[in-house]
Fold Penicillin-binding protein 2.
Amino acid sequence: MAVLKKKITNRIRILRALVVVLLAIYALNLFSMQILRKQLFTSEAERISLQSTRIPAPRGEIYDRTGRVVLAGNIEAYSVYITPSELPATKRESVILLLSKLLNISAEDIESKLPTGRLTSYGRVAVAKNASLSAISEIAAHIDEFPGVSWTSQPLRDYADLRSLSNTIGYVGSITRDEYKLFYNKGYTLEDLTGKAGIELIYEDLLKGKDGWIAKAVDVHGKDISRNKARIEAPEPGKRLILSIDSNIQKIAEDALGKRQGSVVVLKPATGEILAMATYPYYDSRVFMSDNAGQEYLKLLNDPQKPMLNRAYQSSYPPASTFKTVLSTAILEEGFISPDKTIYCSGEINYGGRSWSCWIKKPGHGAVDLKNALAQSCDIYYWTVGRDYIGVENIVSYAQDYGYGKLTGIDLPGENPGLLPTPTWKEEKYNDSWTPGDTMNLSIGQGYMLASPLQVANMMAMIVNGGVIYKPHVLKEIRDPGTGALINEVQPEVLQKSSISEKTFETMRSLLRGVIVYGTARAPISTKAVQIAGKTGTGEIGLKDRWHSWFASFGPYDAPAKDQIVVVTMIEASNPWEWWGPYAANVIYQAIYAGQDAKTAAATVGVKLDGIAVGGRRE
């Protein structure tokens, strides 16, 4: 009995010892948690209950070349969001209908913005980017009727009255689901705006900026329980972009073009800078900042006049007689025919079973050499020389030297490369062989040949520069958004370098001056403010009462290349025929070099900006 009692006593002692040890362990652990590791657990608790709110970064501003004219800036605006996970299915339809009436946007438009996948159902989706203060006040006053709805004030893109410059600047829009998949790893959210066209699209990475954050500890009701101040990471605005566009020259070009379907390019040949790029018709970038942006986009997309098309570089046309510059260069450089040899023009020739009429019919131009053939734009001279002396291979070679059939690489999206047809191309495209008639058409820039106004401007730039084309560009500088300090300046980049002799280019400049002094452009180019040189062109499209009207030029003729500009005007045949191309250029040169606006310049040179009667002249 004593032995049994002793055993029980020992067991009790062991049990007591275990209890003491366990209590000691728990005490030590509590001491560690509450004293030694208090800060760690406090931080962890704060992290778990931390509420982070994004502070959208202002998009980088865009200025003209002076750095003083804002083309695209920012304003504060209210954005309305829906968080799908917080919107009960039973109230989805009613909430969408209420928002539709309040924000003046269609219910279908709101519905289309809401994601359906699980991956994005917990994120906020922007349903309105520019809501009024009254709309926000109404939502706030009846918040119980709007579960899952929230709003913020954030920078919204603000465009100046850009007119046709909208087609160069572009616009921004809500990020799409497909874009979100691509941009997710770059830190984009479904609330972001992203560049959709023009400069806004091409330089998205520079303009985007870096979002900031404000973080604070909250309870389950969202009440701030932080003992310390909220942690704030300030947003970094996007870079400030300075364009090469001269706002004054841009307005002159637009006014000279008027409401005529076509385009104007003003290029600085010594650097490749685009000083102006006018196109008509055009769209207004500001319509994409409205809550009906989707509907506006569809209207523009379905407009038969294609206002979203920048005709200066996204369209191509038969370059017509401006292309005679290429054949003239080949003649001077390689002597396929003596420049002094004359070819007789009676107004028409017969070849291949058809009659080929020069732009001036009987009695024609008479006997013309190269100098007079280019000045008078004699088709029969170039048909004959192209077919019988130069040949298609050499024509193509010299055209390639000038950059035809190739992208210029301009820093804008959707460039049209044009078309430089070859015998191989025709065989592959139409399963048909090249004919001498095709060579004749190519010799005057017709037939299958297509070029953009920007490519024609590059041709003139090569002549001015004596054999070099610099890559055309619209961006001039990148600057710090806060200080304005220069970060990077775009340097001239050689796009094309020719082996053609400087003597040939010097002679070409003289011949193109002759077009103005005693040739086809003598009447329309009347400005006394500056001497210019250039080439007219009329592109046939199969109609008897209208043609494309071209004028490719440069000036001041007697100035160094670094002080010259290239102006190319292109008026489509969709307009009533008035041969406006050279007249528009006349106004542009007069305005720039006389320090006038387009209206005053037009009055000075004796034309009306709303149209002139010139008797349907062709050349």
